[in-house]
């Protein structure tokens, strides 16, 4: 059985993908179990001693000064969940829900949250048995964490709300029953521990950065095909050009291009056909490379966040202390997600300009709009329109969410991150980029077909054969969205990158 063992410290982005998309089983490590039990024992002691501690024996937010009696402490936790389940909009995809559940379980397993081991195990059991809460996308300010959407997750744990189980949408109580699970009666601190954190924005972010890495690699492959189709000059990728400006992503991209294009008979050298290419060909390492560097920064932020305790207050059992802080504030993730959206947008921005160079007969020596019988056939004319539309939409989506803040909880929470909005926008941008790259992939293959007798590069040959196995050359106009979806699926599924890497080794 494929599984991921969580302990709050060693979860990777690949682990998140494996659980969210590939259905890996999740187990809690023995060390984590011990830490969780110790933290819970301290919470129980403070409750017994009737100590005034935020979120344990007090209200929440602006109600932090309201002391809650021992008799009302359990009711407080349930009230917290039902009152905070205020998310709206579309439902998160199942993969996002699974990632949210995994990340919340991993954060709780650090032993700084004070939940009972049985409560944590219920969350893990739900994940393993496929009880997927209905969680709506909108309603989080990104501080205090992702309160509203996470409350929808916890509703199911207490037998409320709704969940999907074996493809059927059910009440939370019925979904648990069918899966053979008991609902949880929350006790002191548990409600807050389950919803106060950055796990929604981080779950979206973890999958988004994984997909962005794939798109950055695919961009290098597809751009290389366009370079061949347009008889591009490879001198611009020469290693010494990039060593005198040693930006890491730029160096990686230049190496990628030369490896992918190695052995091609279609590429040219400086002065053979022209002295230099337009920026969208000549500056691929500089443009793609900058996005690679940005994605790498985001990856580091997410790797830290998925193994962090982000609720409040935090339990430090070894010091017998409960400290109220601000780790729930999503600013690190918010900035990173805005940066990711901008970085990935640029991959589509330059891709669309390469599409224009492929279809515009005034900029190349190919048939207009890549069709032999122009006028009767429109060829790739409107495919470029679609790419332009997606790129323009990305410009709107790339406006940073993190520069906005709106006070909440009677101004107690007077600066918020909007990190979940930033993450959702980045995810939408990634979808759009995959479609633009799919269109370029189609157009580059079509253009290469017009070059007659040729030898493709080691990497581009693999990419060309892959798309031609799925989609035939466009001789006469046909329904284009089918081809676009097929090509884009080869891009966003990782199939294109995997096939090329199997031939030439890992793309940086």
From TrEMBL:
Keywords tagged on the record: Cytoplasm, Histidine metabolism, Lyase
CDD domains: PAL-HAL
Post-translational modification as stated in the protein's UniProt record: Contains an active site 4-methylidene-imidazol-5-one (MIO), which is formed autocatalytically by cyclization and dehydration of residues Ala-Ser-Gly.
One protein family per Pfam: Lyase_aromatic
Record PTM 2,3-didehydroalanine (Ser), positions in chain: 144
Signal peptide: none
Primary location: cytoplasm
A GO CC term assigned to this protein in UniProt: cytoplasm
Position(s), cross-link 5-imidazolinone (Ala-Gly): 143-145
Keyword check for Cytoplasm: yes
Protein name (Swiss-Prot/TrEMBL): Histidine ammonia-lyase
Organism: Caloramator australicus RC3
């Amino acid at each position: 059985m494929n599984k991921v063992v969580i302990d709050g410290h060693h979860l990777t982005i690949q682990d998140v993908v494996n659980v969210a998309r590939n259905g890996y089983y999740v187990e809690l490590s023995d060390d984590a179990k011990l830490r969780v039990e110790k933290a819970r024992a301290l919470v129980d002691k403070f409750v017994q001693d009737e100590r005034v501690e935020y979120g344990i024996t007090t209200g929440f937010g602006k109600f932090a000064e309201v002391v809650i009696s021992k008799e009302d402490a359990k009711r407080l936790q349930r009230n917290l969940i039902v009152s905070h389940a205020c998310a709206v909009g579309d439902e998160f995809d199942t993969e996002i829900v699974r990632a949210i559940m995994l990340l919340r379980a991993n954060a709780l397993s650090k032993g700084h949250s004070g939940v009972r081991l049985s409560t944590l195990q219920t969350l893990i059991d739900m994940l393993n048995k496929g009880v997927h809460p209905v969680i709506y996308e909108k309603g989080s300010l990104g501080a205090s964490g992702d309160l509203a959407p996470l409350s929808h997750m916890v509703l199911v744990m207490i037998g409320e709300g709704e969940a999907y189980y074996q493809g059927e949408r059910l009440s939370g109580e019925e979904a648990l029953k069918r899966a053979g699970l008991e609902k949880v009666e929350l006790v002191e601190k548990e409600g807050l521990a389950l919803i106060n954190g950055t796990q929604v924005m981080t779950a979206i972010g973890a999958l988004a950065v994984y997909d962005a890495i794939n798109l950055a690699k695919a961009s290098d492959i597809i751009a290389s095909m366009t370079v061949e189709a347009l008889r591009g000059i490879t001198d611009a990728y020469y290693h010494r050009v990039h060593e005198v400006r040693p930006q890491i992503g730029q160096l990686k991209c230049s190496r990628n291009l030369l490896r992918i294009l190695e052995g091609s008979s279609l590429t040219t050298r400086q002065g053979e056909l022209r002295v230099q290419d337009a920026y969208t060909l000549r500056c691929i390492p500089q443009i793609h490379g900058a996005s690679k560097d940005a994605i790498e920064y985001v990856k580091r932020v997410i790797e830290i966040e998925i193994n962090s305790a982000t609720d409040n207050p935090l339990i430090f059992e070894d010091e017998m202390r409960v400290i109220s802080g601000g780790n729930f504030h999503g600013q690190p993730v918010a900035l990173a997600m805005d940066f990711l959206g901008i970085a990935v947008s640029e991959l589509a921005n330059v891709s669309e300009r390469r599409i224009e160079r492929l279809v515009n007969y005034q900029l190349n020596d190919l048939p207009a709009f890549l069709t032999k019988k122009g006028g009767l056939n429109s060829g790739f004319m409107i495919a470029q329109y679609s790419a332009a539309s997606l790129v323009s939409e990305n410009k709107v989506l790339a406006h940073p969410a993190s520069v906005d803040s709106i006070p909440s909880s009677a101004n107690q929470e007077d600066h918020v991150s909007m990190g979940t909005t930033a993450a959702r926008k980045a995810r939408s941008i990634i979808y759009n980029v995959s479609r633009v790259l799919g269109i370029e992939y189609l157009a580059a293959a079509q253009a290469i077909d017009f070059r007659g007798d040729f030898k493709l590069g080691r990497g581009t040959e693999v990419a060309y054969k892959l798309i031609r196995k799925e989609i035939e050359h466009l001789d006469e106009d046909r329904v284009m969205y089918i081809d676009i979806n097929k090509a884009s699926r080869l891009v966003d599924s990782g199939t294109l990158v995997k096939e090329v890497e199997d031939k030439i080794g890992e793309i940086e």
